[in-house]
Design goal:
Elements (H helix, E strand, L loop, with lengths): L2 H28 L5 H13 L2 E3 L11 E6 L6 H8 L7 E4 L3 E5 L3 E6 L2 E6 L9 H13 L8 E6 L6 E9 L2 E13 L2 E8 L3 E9 L4 H15 L4 E12 L6 E12 L4 E7 L9
Parallel strand pairs: 1-12
Antiparallel strand pairs: 2-11, 2-13, 3-4, 4-5, 5-6, 6-10, 7-8, 8-9, 9-10, 12-13, 13-14
């Protein structure tokens, strides 16, 4: 047998097979992206209502998605208090109907359902540079152990030392919008941290059809026009996962729409990718 020839034929076969598979994946993916004509049409409708699309806006795929399951957060509250508080001494504990409050003269940690809210009431927790702020955030997240392994910086609104660093969990390349740790700063000082977390256990059920991106843009436009008539720019859109309520064991896909105002503010709309309903909280 001519092994050299057989090897060449085998290589050619596998290359051809890979090209065919790649072509099929591309074709399948394109069927869930709006055509150029649809993109131009929705862009014009938005423009007629003083809503423009940013120069970097990309019409994303609306391929069917599965839901995710979540489980209870079993993190220890007292361990979290030690992690978040800079001076965990002389702590007063108060039990509430929905959780616990740990407080000192200068700091407070409130647990409500699976959410933790840390407040700096008087400590000088100043961080001179953005690098320092990110380092503080990273150290806190690492202190969670395995629970913090897959948190990544999602949104950064810091300007001149004021704003937020929002970190969210990433699961199989999907952003879990309802699993977050958000650090708030004012003039360089850390003022508040909000942490919400329910571990993801995996996907479940069949993939369900999503609302198309032009539908979502129309829903966003109508909602925005109910609030204001000012010109707006939709800068980007992605799909994230979100639990709809405290204690919810299911996370659904949501379109996340970022909108810039003329005043330089950024609004974020969360729209259920299955139903088109806007999250109100």
């Amino acid at each position: 047998m001519n092994w050299s020839r057989a090897k060449t034929i085998a290589i050619f076969f596998f290359v051809a097979l890979n090209i065919s598979l790649a072509t099929l994946v591309y074709i399948e993916g394109r069927q869930f992206v709006l055509s150029n004509a649809h993109q131009q049409a929705i862009t014009q409708v938005l423009a007629d209502h003083e809503v423009s699309l940013g120069s970097s806006f990309v019409f994303m795929s609306h391929a069917p998605q599965r839901r995710m399951t979540l489980t209870d957060n079993n993190l220890n509250n007292r361990a979290l208090v030690s992690l978040f508080m800079s001076e965990p001494v002389g702590i007063h504990l108060e039990q509430t109907a929905t959780g616990e409050i740990f407080a000192t003269a200068n700091e407070r940690v409130v647990f409500e359902h699976e959410r933790l809210r840390y407040s700096n009431l008087g400590l000088d927790l100043h961080f001179a540079t953005e690098t320092d702020k990110r380092l503080r955030a990273t150290q806190t997240i690492r202190g969670l152990g395995d629970a913090g392994r897959y948190f990544s910086l999602d949104i950064n609104t810091l300007v001149d030392g004021t704003g937020q660093l929002a970190y969210r969990q990433i699961y199989r390349h999907r952003v879990i919008e309802s699993n977050y740790m958000i650090f708030s700063f004012e003039s360089g000082a850390l003022t508040e941290v909000v942490f919400n977390f329910r571990p993801v256990t995996g996907f479940f059920g069949e993939a369900r059809a999503l609302r198309t991106t032009d539908e979502i843009l129309l829903i966003a436009m109508r909602h925005l026009r109910e609030l204001s008539a000012e010109p707006l720019t939709i800068t980007q859109m992605d799909v994230v996962y979100r639990a709809d309520a405290h204690g919810e064991a299911i996370a659904n896909p949501y379109y996340r729409v970022f909108v810039d105002t003329q005043a330089g503010q950024t609004k974020t709309l969360l729209i259920n990718a299955y139903t088109g309903d806007i999250a109100r909280d």
